[in-house]
Design brief:
The complex is a heterodimer of chains A (644) and B (376).
Chain A lengths: L10 E5 H11 L4 E4 L6 H9 L1 H4 L2 E4 L3 H13 L4 E6 H17 L5 E7 L13 H6 L4 E2 L4 H18 L3 E3 L1 E2 H4 L2 E5 L31 H20 L5 E3 L6 E6 H14 L5 E6 L1 E3 L3 H10 L2 E5 L6 H9 L9 E3 L14 H12 L8 H13 L13 H16 L4 E3 L17 E3 L5 H9 L11 E6 H17 L4 E7 L28 H8 L2 E5 L4 H14 L4 E6 L14 E5 L14 H6 L4 E4 L4 E4 L19 E5 L3
Parallel strand pairs in A: 2-3, 2-4, 4-5, 5-7, 5-8, 6-7, 11-12, 11-14, 14-15, 16-17, 16-18, 18-19, 19-21, 20-21
Antiparallel strand pairs in A: 1-9, 6-13, 10-12, 22-25, 23-24
Chain B lengths: L5 H9 L17 E4 L2 E4 L9 H5 L5 E2 H9 L13 E5 L15 H12 L4 E8 L2 E7 L18 H10 L5 E5 L1 H11 L12 E7 L7 H8 L8 E5 L7 E6 L3 E5 H4 L20 E8 L2 E9 L2 H12 L12 H22 L12 E2 L2 H9 L5
Parallel strand pairs in B: 3-14, 5-7, 7-8, 8-12
Antiparallel strand pairs in B: 1-2, 4-13, 5-6, 9-10, 10-11, 12-13
Classes of the chains: A alpha/beta (644), B alpha/beta (376).
Chain lengths: 644, 376
């Protein structure tokens, strides 16, 4: 089933990201680009699947900045275009976005960042909302699944009205949850791509697209924003529900709208508390907000992470005279936390406190029992790599080489499944982890600290997709300054963590076409690094290689670990080996082993049989990679070539 | 005696830099490995007791227990340990030739032991550049290629552990006093293994005042000598006060003071110069300014038998000790004991002073050592 299959006028259960994809198609989007990142990835995947049939162009770009540039080209040529990324992708794209906001666009162009409050699938909880304000771009936020479809269509119209980028922000609980969505008709697109630049420099629609003269363009941009502010005042996506004169007015947006509705409902406060759900959050529809604040006794701002609507409202309220004299609850009085995701419970507690209601979801005794049971009754399941994952094997060799070297060497991590190298899954090898590409940059810096007596070896790791995304400049830097560092590229042939999207090193593009695959090894050699290749599944040879590179080589060296992801299409469901444990040889908990495979190596495919006191293979989840054969000190883990 | 585990081994020995790199804890399990003469803890094992700790010569060394194991007696605190006889020796006419350091006695003795069947294998120390590497040798013809002192810490006990695991049952072992102490601990079956058997055929100890850390040697000689082809390391007789490193192209002399910086801290706590828990101990004998002969100490019955057989077969020679040699040897050995026991005592690592003592020594023996003032 694809997003093309929903019939016009029918109501369907759609994931938020599907609703956005479908809405974009209905709006006649022609060029779509992005970089994978949870919770945004499905938007592009849905569109890529139907690209051929719909005659649109869909691209997984090398990084977010380039994806925004690709989408902008579509807009410059008069087509509707969309760019999709996760929240921190906006940081990467922000340099171009700053300039694009000034130069303006032609065909409708929408940027869809999907934020991850609480960092469920991220290593930060940055917010894209603040970019809209900082770069003076209109920001809209769907408050439910229907709106996800409806507002993306509207976003393209808005963009064409002001000839600038419109930001439509989603969050995890909107992108990844599902709800009823009534879909509309799919258009027939016929306009031809043409970049019109023949007019003079100051003609924003037919001249060259540039940011100069800056003060003039900046003024035009701000004038456009005033137009948008007026449109927002009467937008149907700003909705109020509740009594005419509520005791308390909740002002909220996005998924927090759903939490707020649930909280009011559970506390039975619908006669006392009203909810102003804003679909248009920047610029703030000040008159609308003022009207509702005026009617209310007090105000509670419900939004995730930092105050945004709250700040804009408080600033606006400075000019409201008496209307402003209300009790404001939100981030500043501690009613709503400034970190992590919100949920209905947090809002229930805030509402209960403000309205003086006694509320307990469960009895004290039940809660206590539940807390105890959740700590003692549930098995400890830590984040780990899949059975057959090459990262476990790679980290094994890196960890062992650094331990043998014995000089406190460490790994500078990067962004991907392998970020889990900071946990037991990667034998705790990672000691720094920040943004994409940063591991290599940081290692480049560590590698210059020898003159200050540093003997520890810095080993950066990155995935193949991350290599192209942001590692290349850092490696160039390391080679150029002759940093004494080592980069290990975990080349598992795809952007594995986000669902195996293609990247410049793969032979296929997002739409399934055969394209040019860029060879990482050749790039590294061209940069001038000392380049080596290893198969991480060959533990002994790889450990020796890492150790040799760490100990005996200087300058920037690169080791490419080549082994496909266990979930890659070529491997999924196919076992290379049938694994088994020779119980007569297994040393179990005895001195000489002490459950080495299940306590230290810890592939989920290895299971401790408590009754027999031996290890065994969980043949259902074992991927048959054969690696554990090489770690058993007793030679009890045996492998046989699997019959095809 | 309570046997502790890997956690205590790390805190008491490795983290305090007291590891001698002998390899006693290596090749038993996947948690400890050896690399370039140093022992590395790869992962944290959670066992409360283990052979790693039980075999380590730097913790829980109960001298009475080891004396009982090897000599069936208590530890007496004598200068050069328990012995039956002491001779001057060198390799005899039946033995092979090779790059021997002094008299070639050890190589000749091991060659004979293999040839005569006194041992089924020999764990010897070879050289890979500046790194000492233990190897299991079964061909008597190859013994002499392992000749010459290495002067760098060797994980030779790991080689023994490996040989034992591979099924050798009469293993010939050559090692420095720390390694020989580890061997005595292994032979005392400290973890009370049900299927235990002593897998040594003969234990030959090498006199030692200190060894060198490979990493330190590499660092010191980095720009002076290509160590990949290192062939020989020697200390010429006094008053030279230097150490020479020779590779296939040239040799480099370094003042002893400079090279002493690479002596592992563990050596400062060592009270054993003559490898007292060996069957036979061998050291260099400097006569007339040359070093072409050895002192050989016969300690046990099986040591005595091997010595006599080897002499009879012409593999080694045996002559009476010249006057004064015993006195000098005893003095040097006792001085090492006094230095070590003073340090162990000052740092509360002895007997009941420590929760987990490094060494346990009976009071009369300790009194004898500390009152000896460096003589007999």
């Amino acid at each position: 089933m694809s997003i093309l299959d929903y019939k016009e006028g029918t109501v369907n259960l759609l994931m938020g990201n599907e609703a956005i994809s479908r809405g974009a198609l209905e709006a006649g989007v022609r060029v779509v680009a992005g970089y994978p990142g949870t919770p945004s990835s499905e938007i592009i995947e849905n569109l890529a699947k139907v690209a051929d049939k719909s005659g649109i162009y869909v691209e997984w770009s090398v990084n977010e900045k380039v994806s925004l540039e690709v989408a902008a080209a579509g807009s410059f040529a008069g087509l509707r275009s969309m760019c999709v990324m996760k929240q921190n992708g906006v940081n990467v794209a922000s340099d171009f976005l700053l300039h694009l906001a000034l130069s303006g666009t032609r065909g409708g162009m929408v940027l869809v960042p999907c934020d991850d409050p609480g960092a469920i699938s991220s290593v930060n909880e940055g917010e894209s909302r603040h970019f809209a304000r900082m770069l003076e771009l209109p920001l809209i936020e769907p408050g439910d699944f229907q709106e996800a479809r409806d507002m993306i269509k509207w976003a393209f119209e808005l963009s064409e009205k002001i000839h600038n980028v419109v930001v439509m922000r989603s969050v995890t609980r909107l992108s990844h949850a599902s709800g009823n969505v009534k879909v509309g008709a799919l258009p027939v697109n016929e306009n031809k791509a043409y970049f019109s630049f023949g007019s003079h420099l100051l003609d924003p629609l037919n001249g060259p697209v540039i940011t100069a003269p800056v003060p003039m363009r900046h003024r035009q941009q701000q004038d456009k924003l005033k137009v948008i502010a007026e449109i927002f005042e009467t937008s149907e996506f700003n909705k109020y529900t509740g009594p005419e004169k509520p005791e308390l007015l909740i002002i909220t947006s996005s998924a927090c709208n759903l939490y707020s509705m649930e909280a009011v409902n559970i506390l039975g406060l619908d006669k006392r508390v009203g909810i102003l759900k804003l679909g248009t959050t920047y610029p703030l529809p000040e008159k609308l907000v003022k009207k509702h604040v005026d009617a209310a006794g007090a105000v509670l701002f419900v939004e995730e992470v930092l105050p945004f609507i709250e700040d804009l409202t408080r600033i606006a309220a400075a000019a409201w005279g008496d209307v402003a004299h209300k009790q404001y609850h939100g981030k500043y009085d501690g009613s709503i936390p400034t970190v992590n995701e919100l949920n209905p419970d947090i809002i229930i507690n805030a509402l209960a406190k403000i309205t003086g209601i006694e509320y307990r979801a469960v009895s004290e005794e039940y809660e206590k029992k539940g807390t105890i049971l959740s700590f003692t009754g549930a098995p400890n399941r830590e984040l780990t790599f899949c059975p057959g994952c090459p990262h476990r094997a790679s980290y094994w060799s890196i960890h062992n080489a650094l331990s043998l070297n014995g000089k406190g060497g460490f790994v500078c991590g990067d962004i991907g499944c392998y970020t889990m190298g900071i946990l037991g899954a990667g034998f705790g090898a990672i000691k720094t982890a920040h943004a994409m590409g940063s591991g290599t940059g940081v290692a480049s810096g560590f590698g210059k600290l020898g003159q200050f007596g540093m003997e520890q070896k810095a080993v950066a790791v990155c995935g193949d997709s991350t290599f192209f995304h942001a590692v290349m400049p850092a490696l160039v830097n390391a080679v150029h300054v002759q940093s004494d560092m080592m980069l290990v590229v975990f080349d598992n042939r795809g952007t594995a963590m986000t669902g195996f999207q293609p990247h410049p090193g793969t032979e296929n593009d997002a739409m399934g076409n055969v394209v040019n695959a860029i060879d990482i090894e050749s790039i590294c050699r061209a940069i001038g690094a000392d380049v080596h290749v290893a198969d991480p599944f060959d533990l002994a040879a790889t450990t020796e290689k890492v150790l040799d590179l760490v100990e005996n080589k200087s300058g920037a060296r690169v080791l490419i670990m080549k082994q496909s992801c266990a979930l890659s299409p070529e491997k999924k469901g196919k076992k290379k080996y049938e694994m088994s444990v020779d119980e007569s040889k297994c040393r179990g908990e005895n001195c000489g082993c002490n459950r080495f495979c299940t306590k230290v190596f810890r592939c989920p495919g290895l299971v401790w049989n408590r009754d027999k006191g031996v290890s065994m293979i969980d043949s259902v989840i074992c991927a048959g990679c054969g690696v554990c054969h090489g770690i058993c000190p007793a030679g009890a883990i045996t492998r046989e070539e699997a019959r095809v | 005696m309570q046997v502790f585990g890997p956690k205590e081994l790390q805190s008491d020995v490795l983290q305090k830099n007291l590891c001698a790199g002998c390899g006693a804890c290596v090749s038993l399990c996947p948690y400890f490995k050896t690399h370039k003469g140093r022992t590395a803890a790869m992962f944290q094992c959670t066992r409360e007791s283990g052979r790693c700790n039980a075999y380590c010569p730097k913790t829980g060394v109960d001298l009475d227990r080891l004396s009982a194991t090897v000599f069936n007696g208590t530890y007496a605190g004598d200068a050069i340990g328990n012995f039956k006889a002491v001779y001057v020796s060198q390799k005899g006419s039946s033995a092979g030739n090779g790059n021997v350091q002094n008299g070639g006695t050890v190589s000749a003795l091991m060659q004979f032991a293999l040839k005569s069947g006194a041992v089924d294998s020999a764990v010897l120390t070879g050289r890979k550049g500046a790194v000492s590497v233990p190897e299991i040798v079964t061909d008597p013809g190859k013994v002499f290629s392992y000749a010459s002192s290495k002067y760098s810490t060797s994980p030779v006990v790991a080689g023994f552990n490996k040989a034992a695991a591979e099924g050798y049952a009469k293993i010939g072992f050559v090692g420095t006093p720390c390694a020989v102490t580890a061997m005595a601990k292994i032979r005392s079956n400290p973890t009370e293994l049900a299927d235990f058997s002593d897998k040594t055929g003969i234990v030959v100890g090498l006199f030692c005042t200190w060894a060198l850390d490979t990493w330190g040697v590499e660092k010191t000689l980095k720009d002076k000598l290509d160590l990949a082809s290192l062939q020989r390391v020697d200390i010429p007789p006094p008053p030279a006060d230097v150490m020479t490193f020779t590779n296939i192209h040239k040799d480099v002399m370094l003042p002893l003071d400079e090279i002493r910086a690479s002596i592992p801290l563990a050596c400062a706590y060592c009270h054993d110069m003559t490898a007292e828990f060996a069957d036979i101990s061998v050291g260099a004998l400097e006569i007339d300014g040359g070093k072409n002969r050895n002192v050989i100490i016969i300690r046990t019955d099986r040591g005595e038998k091997l010595y006599k057989d080897a002499v009879a077969a012409g593999y080694i020679t045996g002559e009476p000790l010249p006057a004064g040699v015993m006195d000098g040897l005893s003095k040097a050995s006792m001085n090492k004991k006094i230095r070590a026991f003073t340090r162990l005592s000052d740092e509360k690592m002895l007997n009941g002073d420590a929760e987990r003592p490094a060494v346990i020594i009976n009071a009369p023996a300790l009194g004898k050592i500390m009152n000896s003032k460096g003589g007999m």
